[in-house]
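I have been asked to look over a protein record a colleague put together. Thanks in advance; the entry in question is below.
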Amino acid sequence: MLDSTTKRRIDSARDILVGKVPDPKSQVEQITIALIYKFMDDMDNESEELGGERTFFKGDFEKYAWHKIFDPQNGGFDMISLYAEAIDKMDINPNVPQLFRDIFKNAYLPYRDPETLRSFLKEINKFEYEHSERLGDAFEYLLSVMSSQGDAGQFRTPRHIIDFMVDVIDPQKNESIMDPACGTAGFLISSYKHILKNNSSNFNPETEEKLYANQHASATETVVNGKQYRGDKLTPDDKVRLARNIIGYDISPDMVRLSLVNMYLHGITEPYISEYDTLTSEDKWNEYVDVILANPPFMSPKGGIKPHSKFSIQSKRSEVLFVDYMADHLTPNGRTMVIVPEGVIFQAGTAYKSLRKKLVEENYLIGVISLPSGIFNPYSGVKTSILWFDRSLAKKTDKILFLKVENDGFDLGAQRRPIKLNDLPGIAQIIKSYKQALIEDKEFILEEKEGLLVEKAKIAEDGEYNLNGGRYRSKAKIQSSFKIVEIGEICSLISGGTPSKKESKFWENGDFPWISSKFIDDKGNITGFDLITRCAIDESSTKVAPKGSTVVITRVSVGKTAFAQFDCAINQDLTALVVKDKNVIHEEYLYLVSSKIASIVEANAEGIGVKGVTRKFLEKIQIPLPPLNIQEEIIEEIQSYQKIIDGARQIVDNYKPTINIDPEWEMVKLGDICKPEYGYTDTAKDSGDARFIRITDISSTGELIEVNPKFISLSADSEKYVLYKNDVLVARTGATFGKSMIFQECGTPSVFASFLIRLRFEKLINPKYYWVFAQSQYYWDQANRLVTGGGQPQFNGNAIKQIIIPVPPAEIQEKIISQVVEELALVNQNKRLIEIFEQKITDKINSVWGN
């Protein structure tokens, strides 16, 4: 695990550079160059201390020794001149090995500010060269802070995902290992460490904790296992062969430079990393390897790739070409794990289908592991899967294994903080057991909840070779005692469209409602509409969903339905289910069971970016169909529950405490009795033990939300923002502006964020009374007048100081608090009533379905 001191130094070095070098990738390059420069001087000093000679900085290059940059006689600009000249000439220093010369090739100093350079070099000077895992992990952390290279579709692969893939592919000491788009060499380093670990005396596979199974740091800070495995069981020949067997290519010289440093610091002193365009160059086409591990670029440049003619699949898409390359460059018993975007899994294009056919029919593919969307956060929310090739095992089975990772041990937010749910260890064990069963020619039994084994013939049936495991999952049989019908049997399906905005005749003076998914809320209500002309209905792609139809969102924000209370035109993301015969199915019954239809649509939606289901799929969904009189009884029962919910919701939504203001009470400005304080701006990238309360942690009703809490480390800067019991917090911006909450002690120190205002009342006002007052209409009439800003309302400290507060005597404040607490208890009872009767509706629908 990365030690906090080293991590803090790296963060400090980046903070120093950020004003002059805003690009994170350039920051990493500057730190990389400086570290290697410093380490070469450290090695020279160590050699001298042991009675030897300097190696790197001697002769004409002695004047560039790191320690000479800090000569007190050097002024600021002297330091800049010497340092800039040194890194510029390092690649022609004959005393420096080729590896280091490659690192310094084209290096330069991008700024000329003496104070920035002096501060930066002082921070770098604190690092000491120890050829240890600690420095390698520190550099890996440095690489993790680089922004994604979005134009090239490159995203840092999370370390725990890399180690999961390496662990299950299990590279051996005598095998060649390659990554054809190696980036910073994460897969290669993990493979190297895997082999060292498995050839170390202190390795016990029974007690070893897998990196992907046990984590406490956030996913973006996860680094390699720190157990100091040295591979003492490897012979000198093994070690030489191992270093030569680990091969990486990358098209970017910057990535090559970073991967060289990364591998060097992880113990590979002569790394085989080449600047090479895997897709357009033929120079290395005839090289074959035993193991390929990769997460190649997802995106193709405008106009596509222009590959050479040796690819078996003709395509201009990088993801297709990389996968094809990997398949073609495995040895006869070779194996691969590669991360691919969803297009490779199910896109209908000819190249995609040809690739999938090749992988299935020619015995490359043995398994597909679906990964959750958001696994590449904070860089991208793209949905991906892992393709698993094994040329030896694929010949021993006529099936493909499908597995799905729902949780990988981290939440899917930007910080990717650890959570308890983690499917990776279980899935790794399934893969290992399956491999062993195939090797031993034994039957392998897999429960459907664990995964699927699908015959290759079934995958090939329609010629699509779709690799989405969900489509092969056996449909859960409806256990209902009622007749089961397909939607297409009882309904006509109407798909919509959007009239062209360029055609004024479709929109000007429109009088007919037109809806898209944005007008359908989570409760199934149509909350609004745009107006189009009758001409748009006749001449554009939009269609009319008649009153009484059930509207299903079948694209983009799938998973919701609505009941059409009026005739309305619909856009392309919606499909209307129109009952064919009202003597067979009641329109309101169809809508009531549409929550189940929506769940099926959501579970089966496919697509890249825009997900959805086809009209044909929707037609085939089955629903229970009771006799008409039973349908009417079900409708009546559910409507009676809904009336109770609606009544309770009226109370919950409209309750506001009322304070009957006595003219005798003192009226005071808040600013006269309390000093509003803004909160803490957190710039730290690490987690800690103090709860960091943000504006998003306060609900619209002024309660603390416990979902995805953030934690930070307390420091001298943040301690003055620590909260105490009965501190009042007020949101000062956004949709929740003016909302207040009273902080209660929660077992850990808590710090409030900068978009919150703290009010601490030491006299005149009971904090709970202020909170009651802040729910009243009298307060909101003032707040709404004082707020500033347009789309983003601002309720700042100066505004809140102007709030006039009626201040009754202390005993009256207590009575008001007591009364409101009693009223709130009744409101909360209504909230509970809503929960109970919503569950009754769910239970009723489930009973119709037979669940």
User: Anything to note?
Assistant: Residues 810-849 form the longest helix (40 residues). DSSP finds 28 helices and 30 strands in the chain.
